[in-house]
Design goal:
The strands form 4 sheets. Strands 1, 17, 18, 19, 20, 21, 23, 24 and 25 form a 9-stranded mixed β-sheet that branches. Strands 2, 5, 6, 7, 8, 9, 11, 12 and 15 form a 9-stranded antiparallel β-sheet that branches. Helix content is 7%, strand content 44%. The radius of gyration is 21 Å and the shape is globular. The chain has 3 helices and 25 strands. It has 2 domains: 129 residues, Immunoglobulin-like, CATH 2.60.40; 163 residues, Chondroitinase Ac, Chain A, domain 3. Strand 13 and strand 14 form a beta hairpin. By secondary structure, it is mostly beta strands.
């Protein structure tokens, strides 16, 4: 489970049917420039460990660090002096997840998300861990996804025939006990660790489950790097990545994880050999053992951003 387009190893796929590359259209955009503009930005705050402090993110996440909120990650000693640097990333919509956040699944099982945040803390460059006092977090209910539980990022268990997708070594798992509740417009909980945390619940659907595969249909380039294939579901706050199956040489969903009849948008995005963004999307309805040949082509910023504006 990695951030969008940030892979531990790059998947490079050749389209043997293409002998030449089309020139970049005038309105095309470099992938690096696109993500620099549209990805969720990490925010930085500073506060006194001796006094305690509260931060509020740009999207409304409020975190209160009382006295005794920090310890040194190596020695375990309490940190009670100095200015602590807090970094916060707020992923509070399906568009945010698509561009910037860990996908909403737990060892291949679908999750419904109410919002994800990443919190880290350092003092003079030294990594900190939560101390003895509870750190209160209030996350806005932007996605209006209902009752939730707390999940944290952790190493993935073996899945799909005993293999862990090399690009997705982490997944969401239920957090160790931490008080969790709901205010009128927020999820309220104690931060269990300085890491990614997610207000989530397991998705329950009585429909039969299936596995699907996707093959990119390259329109104008014979190689795409950093390629990701995702599904943004229509009526639930769920966004998933399809890992690349090196045996099938196709992108494949986690085994028997997708409810038959569920609707969503299939999204492909990567960059060509010149760094320009490649993009494709199509509406799908999950069917038993379906395979999709999905077009992907060099695209303009306007084309990609217009699609993103439809993701609610």
């Amino acid at each position: 489970m990695k951030k969008f387009l940030v892979l531990a190893s790059v998947v490079m796929i050749a389209a043997c049917t293409k002998d030449t590359q089309a020139p970049a259209p005038d309105n095309s955009i470099k992938a690096a420039d696109f993500f620099a503009k549209y990805q969720v930005k990490e925010q930085t705050f500073k506060g006194s460990a001796a006094l305690g402090f509260t931060i509020t993110g740009e999207k409304g996440t409020k975190i209160t660090f009382p006295l005794h909120a920090f310890k040194d990650s190596i020695t375990g000693a309490e940190v009670n002096i100095g200015d602590v640097e807090i970094k916060l990333t707020e992923v509070l919509s399906k568009k945010d997840i698509l561009l910037s956040g860990p996908m909403t699944e737990s060892n291949g099982q679908l999750l419904i998300s109410g919002g994800e945040i990443k919190v880290t803390a350092k003092l003079n460059g030294a990594v900190l861990i939560p101390g003895d006092s509870a750190i209160k977090v209030e996350v806005p209910q932007v996605m209006k996804a209902g009752d939730m539980n707390l999940f944290v990022q952790a190493p993935r268990k073996q899945a799909d025939g005993g293999n862990i997708p090399p690009e997705f070594q982490s997944t969401w798992v239920p957090a160790p006990y931490a008080p969790f509740g709901m205010g009128p417009n927020t999820y309220v909980f104690s931060l269990p660790a300085f890491t990614w945390v997610n207000c989530d619940r397991f998705y329950s659907d009585p429909a039969p489950k299936t596995t699907i595969t996707v093959s990119p249909d390259f329109q104008d380039s014979d190689s795409i790097s950093g390629l990701q294939v995702m599904i943004v579901f229509k009526d639930i706050t769920t966004v998933i990545t399809l890992p690349f199956n090196y045996t099938l040489t196709q992108f494949q969903s986690y085994l028997n994880s997708l409810p038959i009849g569920k609707e969503g948008e299939l999204v492909l995005i990567g960059k060509d050999e010149n760094g320009y963004i490649e993009f494709g999307t199509q509406h799908i309805i999950i069917a038993a053992d379906m395979h999709i040949d999905a077009p992907i082509a060099r695209s303009s910023e306007a084309t990609v951003s217009a699609f993103l504006n439809t993701v609610q």
